[in-house]
Amino acid sequence: MTTQHAGAGRGGPQTTSVTSDSPFKPPLVKAVFRDVTPMHVSRSAAWAAASVTRTVLTEIVQGARAAAEEEDRRKLIPGNLLSAIDRNVELEVGTTWYDHSPTFRGLTGVVYDAEGVVVPSRGRGGSRRPSAVVGAHRFEAGVRKLLRSRGTAAVPAMVRDLDGIASVFLTDLARDAAMVVREGGIKRFGSVVQAMPDEPAPAPFPKDFLGALSARSGDGRTIGRDDILAATTMQLFGGLRQRALTEAREAAQNPSAG
Questions:
Q1: Can you say whether the dihedral through the CA atoms of 42, 43, 48, 50 is positive or negative?
Q2: Over the chain (258 residues), what is each successive 10-residue block's mean pLDDT?
Q3: With contact defined as beta carbons under 8 Å apart, do 149 and 14 qualify?
Q4: Cα 61 from Cα 63, distance rounded (Å)
Q5: Residue 101 to residues 78, 96, 116, 160, Cα–Cα distance (Å)
Q6: pLDDT value for 132
Q7: pLDDT at res. 253
Q8: Contact predicate 39/221, CB 8 Å
Q9: 231: Cβ–Cβ under 8 A, 6 or more apart, which residues?
Q10: With contact defined as beta carbons under 8 Å apart, do 157 and 138 qualify?
């Protein structure tokens, strides 16, 4: 997918405050984590993961809304989602969903086997544990609540895409957080800060912050807040990553407000 950055779609100061009511609650977060790992998820970790997911979805909605406003459109449509991602590469998350959504058909490429035959898209084969795609419907209420909080609405196909992206993103976050616990910290992730060519590089993370994430403390059976923060640095980059980390820390410290 071609990505050309533009100012539209940036959350900046408009990003939903961490003091607002979160559309993604800890029980939903823990249900997703249970699909991925048997590890216990602490209360602060659940709030942090819910906050990161909200930040990501808010950025996507704001980018899509900006595109819709340019077309004088009141409801968001899948085309607005494509425009938002095309303008801001930071929003390209939960990409496993792209293989399952008609919105991205033709953009994810056709896969061929060794004989040059087109490989069919992945089916909905049975599994003992629900995948992120199968469980995407769990996010619909939260997505609609988030849309209302941003003063907008979306057609059903767009809601479904936001459902799927949220589900896949949180599932990926859970997998990375579990890996951080198993490995005792971030072992394979460097401190490189990515930025777009036409904008100044974001301020690097403080050494004490990255150092705290590189070697975790605590038992090997519980995913804590810092494990979520470490996973967030692996899933996101740029300004979106910094906003997500800031809001997640605050949400975890003030769970009643997250």
A1: positive
A2: 43 44 90 95 96 97 97 94 95 92 72 56 47 81 96 95 96 95 70 48 48 61 94 95 95 65
A3: no
A4: 5
A5: 10, 10, 24, 9
A6: 76
A7: 81
A8: yes
A9: 173, 174, 176, 177, 179, 180
A10: no
Enter the tokens of residue 117: 């035959």
- The answer to whether the CB of 16 falls within 8 A of the CB of 149 is yes
Q: How far apart are the first and last CA of the chain?
A: 34
> Do the beta carbons of residue 50 and residue 173 sit within 8 Å?
no
Structure tokens at 133: 């795609």
Distance of CA 195 to the CA centre of its chain: 18
| Coil, helix or strand at residue 189 | coil
Residue 240's pLDDT is what?
96
Query: What is d(CA 92, CA 244) in angstroms, rounded to the nearest whole number?
Result: 15
How many other β-carbons are positioned within 10 Å of the β-carbon of residue 87?
A: 20
Unique residue bearing structure tokens 């490189």: 192
Between CA 102 and CA 181 the distance in angstroms is 36
Q: Do residues 54 and 146 touch, judged by C-beta distance below 8 A? A: yes
Q: Which of 193, 168, 181, 166 is nearest to 230 (CA)?
A: 181
Distance of CA 142 to the CA centre of its chain: 14
Q: What pLDDT does residue 189 have?
A: 46
